[in-house]
Amino acid sequence: MIRVLFFGRLRELLQCNELEFTPDSKVVSVRQIRSDLSQKGANWEEFLNTNHALVAVNQTMADDDVMVKSGDEVAFFPPVTGG
Amino acid sequence: MICVDEHCFDAGILTEELRSRDNACGALVSFIGSVRDINEGEDVVGLTLEHYPGMTEKVLETIVESAKQRFAVAHIYIYHRVGYLSLNEPIVFVGVTAQHRESAFMACEFVMDFLKNDAPFWKKEHRQSGEVWLEPAQKEQRTKLRWD
Question: Which of A29, A51, B35, B124 has its CA 20 to 30 A from that of B85?
Fold first, then answer.
């Protein structure tokens, strides 16, 4: 099971702050997770399939080629605005 | 010291704590960012700051380590608030001590530039006209690049 988190405007838009993702294989790419989650509806597709959603894997910034396995934590979020 | 917390900070107390850590440091530079009353021409009532617990602290630690490796500084404090903040309330405190002011000034600016670009916080502005999630300012990417 992969823990998937959402933050900021993305969390509000998707009305979801966290979900559990069960991959079809032992390891899965971030790209695949994005693609699978996009199937959940229009808002999911719009946000996750564009540059609006940055990604971190195990709390480190990542890109779509990064491979994820069960027990990992993936977070999707908009560009940051702290400070 | 890294602190991400809902409670308001007292800049005077943080400054004194920082200063008293090392009497060899003659220079202390600090920055405080606060909630502005007008943003993009709109009246701001307050701000809600969200963050990614765990990753936020990690990123801030990394920024502090980078600054310490790059500049001759002794200690760096970052205190960043989260949760709901009212108008004019302080959001962030960055303090740096060094033997000499040049390093302290540069390190403080460096930390803020990287915090603005990399730290996982998100601001939702509460305006008279409604609520808006803020987008990063165009200038922020440029401010980070100048450190390359």
Answer: A51
pLDDT in tens, B52-67: 999 999 999 999 999 9
The model scores a pTM over 0.90: yes
Candidate from A7, A60, A79 with C-beta closest to B136: A79
Contacts with B55 from chain A: Cβ below 8 Å:
56, 59-60, 75
CB atoms within 10 A of CB B140: 16
SS3 for B110-136 is: HHHHHHHHHCCEEEEEEECCEEEECCC
The one-letter amino acid at A13: L
Render pLDDT for A36-80 as a digit per residue (tens, 0 to 9).
998 888 888 877 776 679 999 999 999 999 999 999 999 999 999
Distance from CA of A10 to the nearest CA of B (A): 10
- A41 Rama sector, left if φ>0, alpha if ψ -120 to 50, beta otherwise: left
